[in-house]
Amino acid sequence: MEKDEPTRLVSTNWLAKHSQDPDLRILDASWYLPGENRNPLEEYSRSHIPGARFFDIDEIADKDTHLPHMVPSQELFAIRVRKMGIDNGHQIVVYDTAGIFSSPRVWWLFKLMGHKDIAVLDGGFPKWLEEGREVEDVPPQVNERHYYSRKQAQLVKSLAEVQKASCEGSPQILDARPKTRFMGLLPEPRPGLRSGNIPNSINLPYTNLLNENGTMKEKQDLLEEFKSSGLDLDKPVITSCGSGITASILFLALDMIGHRNISLYDGSWVEWGST
């Protein structure tokens, strides 16, 4: 069953049907973990969905911190988005080369900056390719547009706010990392970080929310996954992970099932595990 919600998740069929809409913008937001030795920009240059522009998660980020790809200032975000030919009235569809992995981070980032009409491509580039759909290797010609950001500060949490939540037990903290990393049984992919988890946090690996083909599970199945994790869906939730990427998958899934009190810990374990 296809789940077409243009403010959350759209199918490859939906995108193929609407790809030529003048007010649609497509973004390739592919990103890889340290150690994977893959370059998302180079891969975009070789093959991408027609009309897609590349959104560099590591470059459109806060330059005044040592932490990776933290939320940029409203000004920097607006400047970069304008240069991609996007304005506030555009419908955006964002995808990645893993299926659903890094694209929800960009979905969340646009939401944080006040953009309403943005959706993740369900199944991403792998599903698009599997279906034999058209690709290209030339970036689109882009004319700079006007864009302004209106940050929704309630959607993001700082270290101090998460420390308070950890001590008080509210809001709940939901960690998207694999169980082995959450339990401290495997080292973190970034050197210098200790292993383990935020005290009083709950683990729900983001992979539990996805089907084997990389698409998002149905809403009822998502609901069951959240309940099985021990999360109380009547209470506020802060999502977390390694560096704010897969925490965005939890955020998207919670938004899909109708939870309205969600925020994301931007620093996640890369900050917590180094303090």
List keywords for this structure.
2 domains, 10 helices, alpha/beta, globular, 275 residues, five-stranded parallel β-sheet, Oxidized Rhodanese, domain 1
Q: Layout of helices and strands, plus pairs?
A:
Layout: E1 9-10, H1 12-18, E2 24-28, H2 40-46, E3 53-54, H3 74-83, E4 91-95, H4 103-112, E5 118-121, H5 124-130, E6 156-157, H6 159-168, E7 172-175, H7 179-182, E8 201-203, H8 219-229, E9 237-240, H9 247-256, E10 262-265, H10 268-272
Parallel strand pairs: 1-5, 2-3, 2-4, 4-5, 6-10, 7-8, 7-9, 9-10
User: Unreliable segments (pLDDT under 50, ≥5 consecutive)?
Assistant: none
**Shape designation:** globular
The N- and C-terminal alpha carbons lie at a distance of 44 Å
Major sheet: arrangement of strands: 1-5-4-2-3
Structural account:
- With 275 residues, this protein is α/β, with parallel strands linked by helices.
- Strand 4, helix 4 (103-112) and strand 5 form a beta-alpha-beta unit.
- The mean pLDDT is 97.
- The chain contains 10 helices and 10 strands.
- The chain folds into 2 domains: 9-151, Oxidized Rhodanese, domain 1 (3-Layer(aba) Sandwich); 154-272, Oxidized Rhodanese, domain 1, CATH 3.40.250.
- It is 29% helix and 13% strand.
- Helix 4 packs across helix 9 (247-256).
- A 5-stranded parallel sheet has the order 1-5-4-2-3.
